[in-house]
């Protein structure tokens, strides 16, 4: 079976690359993946699979039934959305839409899953169980396409026993795959703060309430949420990346606006931290004679890989790739809406190496020069087919 899958992956590699290039050249922003969805539906139909379209508006679900289809169900997920970035790569498949770019590899995930579908469709008389293909919208934007797909019933009828998802990793050389059992990625919440004081002449602070000084105290004090309130055993990050004070050398502004992110790996602590941050910020502002509106928008939860499912996938990957090409990953404080699936289904989210220093392919995700070594596509598609079948056949 393994060598058969490798053979098929090699055979389909050209068409997987062509599909990826089409998607890369025609990116669509989160929740606007209409043409992408049409393309995916058409490609599935060409290989004899009729998907359910319009799930969570632009998502698709497709089923491949093997022998004894009710014995077990494994779901495979790809995300389809692009980012608001101007592509700076000079490649034949460069984005044709100004200001929109597949800079997080979701074109790779979608093309790869189409390749996996072709392989599994070809082999469906040889494995037991059912594979559920999930093409989801809106990974990059709250509330997350995954949560909308779940609301639309993607995890029912049939209910998957396991779910697998992959993501490109530009830090990992092409030919390598990364796994992590258990806690892997962080929850991510957005923070919006408005601090109001009383503006006036910079030379006469006694007639003003300076929101800039209040802001300075709040930013410094809130770092203690991470250093003094969080358990040292729970990773936490608090970053304020936007600070707007529209005064001047001689003008104290009326208000200051802040935006930030809070990330952690524990749901109880996450809730507590929100309450503590709000109380501290508002208390400091009041004490200094100003006012603070502290608004936290909850983003994705943390992502926890199911230890047994992940270990099985890792061992299957070792069989497929060789032990030297399967690496252990560290915790990563970025967020990913695949986390929603991991809350109710035994899940494994793993990384596909896409880096190639010799070819100069080194840029990180979410940058205008992000690209992949396309040899990763044959690996991504074949490996996922093999992991799905390995999980279906494991009792
Ligand atoms: Ni991504």
Structure description:
The protein has 395 residues and is α/β, with parallel strands linked by helices. Strand 3, helix 3 (106-122) and strand 4 form a beta-alpha-beta unit. The mean pLDDT is 97. The strands form four sheets. It has an eight-stranded mixed beta sheet, sandwiched between helices. It has a four-stranded antiparallel beta sheet with strand order 10-12-8-13, with helices on one face. A two-stranded antiparallel sheet has the order 7-14. It is built from nine helices and 16 strands. The protein has helices spanning 2-25, 34-46, 106-122, 145-151, 211-229, 267-287, 307-321, 339-342, 375-393; strands at residues 52-55, 59-65, 73-79, 130-136, 162-173, 177-179, 182-185, 187-196, 200-201, 236-245, 251-252, 255-264, 291-297, 303-305, 326-328, 346-355. The protein is elongated, with a radius of gyration of 24 Å.
